[in-house]
Specification:
Blueprint: H1 2-18, H2 21-27, H3 38-47, H4 56-63, H5 70-78, H6 84-102, E1 110-119, E2 129-133, E3 138-151, E4 156-158
Antiparallel strand pairs: 1-3, 2-3, 3-4
Helix pairs in contact: 2-6
Length: 160
């Protein structure tokens, strides 16, 4: 099990280096004055979906309770001074550039607007509302997000 975790961890390190995540964070002016470095926080947050955890709190409670507070992650994610749109755009361009060299560069590209609905359950969920989901024909409690992306025959890359 430890060998598999090490291989997973080294794969993520390789992805971060290949996509130049640290450089993209600096370009988007996502930086901190002191404390835990930005690249370390982003690296840790990158693990959350792969560990099948639903919230950052579960990740912090399970992994880093003594080392860092959950507030470090929440304050980082909620900082309105960080230009997340620029970071996501630059990251998408970097991913597209890396994938394009491996595939046929003559592939047609299209802009697509995706209005995905994320269902949630509970009573007091901030900013959640009932939204009509045309795919299932009824209203659901959740969030609707609008994503502009570039679509090719084999991938969808979010732009904004």
């Amino acid at each position: 099990m430890k060998k598999e975790l090490f291989m997973f961890d080294s794969t993520i390190v390789k992805v971060f280096k290949e996509l130049k995540i640290n450089s993209l964070l600096r370009k988007a002016n996502i930086q901190k004055r002191c404390g835990i470095s930005v690249d370390k926080i982003v690296y840790d947050l990158f693990h959350v979906p792969f560990l099948m955890l639903t919230t950052v709190f579960l990740f912090v409670r399970n992994q880093f309770e003594e080392a860092v507070s959950k507030n470090v992650f929440y304050r980082f994610l909620e900082n309105e001074d960080y230009n997340w749109h620029l970071f996501v755009f630059n990251l998408s361009c970097q991913v597209d550039k890396n994938m394009e060299s491996k595939n046929d560069p003559a592939t047609e590209k299209f802009f697509v607007l995706d209005d995905t609905i994320t269902e949630v359950s509970g009573k007091l969920i901030e900013c959640a509302s009932y939204i009509y989901d045309h795919t299932i024909g009824r209203s659901v409690l959740g969030f609707q997000k609008l994503v502009l992306g570039i679509y090719t025959s084999d991938r969808f890359i979010p732009v904004s």
